[in-house]
Amino acid sequence: MIKVSVLYPNNPGVHFDFGYYCSQHMDIVRKCLGDACKAIAVDQGLSSAGPNTPAPFVAMSHLYFDSVESFQKSFAPHAERIMADLSNFTDSQPMIQISEVKLAP
After folding, report:
1. Is the dihedral of CA 29, 90, 42, 99 positive or negative?
2. Average pLDDT by consecutive 10-residue portion of the chain (105 residues)?
């Protein structure tokens, strides 16, 4: 299983609309990726490890797929639509990481 993590850096003054992201944007993502996407999780950054230190990321989403190929096949036809929606909820530029899941709950 692989995990596609989309990380939104928590730069000073960053805007992020969690209501829109969790309901409307993730609905677009679910519809576009279909059954290839096995699960989705969304995290809101609270802090870093030290006391009173900001989280390095304002938000993260994690999308789970059987394989990299499955992700690429489902994402490629809809990449433009998904990415075009970014301005509706944030001004942060996302970073993407694809990982192999070695241990999960």
Report:
1. positive
2. 98 97 98 98 96 95 98 97 97 97 92
CATH level 2 (architecture), domain 2-100: 2-Layer Sandwich (3.30)
Q: Is 104 exposed, middle or buried (0-12, 13-18, 19+ CB in 10 A)?
A: exposed
Residues present in the chain in total: 105
pTM: predicted TM-score of the whole model, two decimal places: 0.93
Q: Tell me phi and psi for residue 33, to 5 degrees.
A: -85, -25
CB atoms within 10 A of CB 11: 12
Contact in structure between 11 and 56 (CB atoms under 8 Å): no
